[in-house]
Amino acid sequence: MVKKPPGNRDENSKEIVAVVLSRKLSVLLAVFLLCSFASISGALLIPSVPHQARKLSPKRVTSIGRNHYSSSGSDNFPPDLKIPRHVAFICDGNARWAKKRCLPTAAGHIIGADRFIELIEYLQADGIQYCTFFGFSTENWKRSEDEIQSIFDLMEQTATKLSNRFPPETSEVEIRLLGDLDDSRIPEGLREALRRLQDASEKRRLTMLQSGVSSTRLTINLAINYGGRQDILRATKLLAMAVKDGTVENPDDITEEVFSSFLGTAGTPDPDMIIRTSGESRLSNFLLWNCAYSEIYISPALWPDFDRNCWEAALAWYQERQRRFGSRESLEERVEFNAMKKKQ
Question: How far apart are CA 121 and CA 325, in angstroms?
Fold first, then answer.
């Protein structure tokens, strides 16, 4: 039997080059499809799973201390202390998600935007009343012009998706904007799209209030071109002007509640829980005045991977926290004690 001589090195090299080129072409094709058909790619990469509302702690209370929710000035306190009233999100990890898959950064932002829409449904199902999403910080201007432009383009598309999924004229979702949207660097189209969302939901809210009905189940704060320090500085300037023109007559009248009313977050309770994805352990200039007693949950998941299971893990973690607000007793223990005293 005659053995065939093995192929020479040149032939082997040609085969290797062919394989490498084939793989590169496959990656380029995947990128093209992902960026060209964002909605289709989102559906493929994020399977739609019906959300089942998590069964939370059965402990019920009839009242709650006003001090924690003083910034909201509202009497609509949550009936269950184990359900956070306000959850804030630092949506981090889009670029790393894309890099791990050899995709452009824009691909991570696309899937992250779809995750944002999906998560809102989970928050509604679990009875969350307020949520805040850190979309673009004042420090994000340090990124490349191309990435910033792609983020703004995607935000405008996401605003349309949000409006279609939760029509502001009819849904039980209210949209509020945080941050400096008057910045000339923000595209006019994006500013108009965001303000249309906010104006439409505000108009509906006022109409419902006039009819004596309040049907807002979830308020969504979109923090765009937002920074915690900048918000505090702006509030300080506004307060100084109020003192100068006599609106605030006595400096001794300036309390935490008064100062909070000058912040961009006025009317929204402090976040009970702040969730940061991607495993990073910092606040990144987010809600600095408001987070004094927020529970901070660090998720190892990158933002595009933060699915229903990740959300429920965060919620379960929150349920185990004992919130004391500087006291020796937890908030639950104080509420139960006050209820017992009333019965006596």
Answer: 30
